[in-house]
Protein 1
Amino acid sequence: MNKSILHCAVISPMFSYGNQKLELRPTELKGIMRYIYRIANHSVDTKLLYKVESKYFGDAEEHASPVRLQMKVAGIKLGLQPLLLHKPIDDKNKKKPHFEIGTTFDVVIRTLFRANKDVDEKPHEWYKELVLLSIVLGGLGKRTRRGRGCVTTTELTQKNNQQLLMWVTDHLNEINDNKFLYEIKNGVIVAVADLSRFKRPVIEKIEIGKEIKDINAFLESVDEAAHTIKCTWHKRMPDDKFATGFVVPKRDSNGSGRFSSSVIVSVTQTSDGIFPIYTYVKAIYNSSPLDIDCQERDEFISLIKGGLH
């Protein structure tokens, strides 16, 4: 068994619950790891992708997970804040308990290697790096695609922005067996491979935004931009199919559901400061692409940036 410990600190309000109570949930972190692995992976064969993913992370049928995660709170700071900062506080937008910025916790990573040498396995360091990549591109709890629940670690704060971009690019390519499918162009990580063949979400590009001076002002700008983009694009998209997320109409599904935003806004901290990370994921709904030219998502990000002026 191999073991690593990451010392983490919350850098944006975290609304993470278990049984209606604030709780750090290892299963949620592993879920993010699986998702990031999936959208970074350039396997066109989805059945093969699921089969490989099950080997690396476990499944309910054949494979026990080779990686075990444990989260230990070190220093708790609790607060109350509404989920939507651009709206007035009322019965629909109540203040909710959350882990405040400055809460610290440890992530303990253990890997158990199996005796069956025929099973392809990843080394312990691969899982550790994937945990770090996952918390750069995502968060824990509610509204994680809108900048909530983000954390940092000493491993990340020791890197500057350029080093972070290079590290993210290298790990995306490592997930793809070190094929050069992503590279940095003009300060933005972009997929240089042909993504037109994919009928599922896959990372298109990743950009670091301008330094965040006031995290609550930034998150309010994100919430306002998310509201405005729906109002703006509703006139252009009468069927309400937004690349930035929408509720699935009941006529299109067996029940209510949602299409998660295909642009993820997260927050990270480097030696240069605290910055937003904008991750564009190919927008696919029922095998059909949305926002092919990224106009909607680019406008959404522009609204965020404009709201901070």
Protein 2
Amino acid sequence: MVFIREFFKEDAKEAAAIWNRVVEDGVAFPQLETLSPKEAEKFFMAQDFTGIAFDTETGEMVGLYILHPNNIGRCGHIANASYAVKFDCRGKHFGEALVSHSLKKASELGFRLMQFNAVVAANHPALHLYEKLGFVRLGTIPGGFRMKDGHFEDIVLFYHTL
């Protein structure tokens, strides 16, 4: 079971470790640089919402998501989100809980759509999850993501009406 709450500055060190592992793996996030705890605090606080997930059985922080507008102005009603699950907690449905929570939170914040701009096509668990949760595949951008080892993978765009 999972409990998701808003990010607090006291979460910065642990949340940064989870986020940074995804960045370091180099197969999902576009970022190249990791975050120090101080940078993480500032980054996570700057989002419209950052959700922190805990395993209710162990109390362990197992993941997080950031939620913000996908664009500005006349397109500011479209949300975007990124998800990070602790490496040894993957495959236990924590990601599904994070995505489901983010859809509800985006709607509560007044967004009308959720759009993902760059889901790496080789990330089969993410593709499966988004389709399971009702996201619509918009298309593919060939070679849109440079993997850590330097080769290029396609990226898939998705949206979900809120």
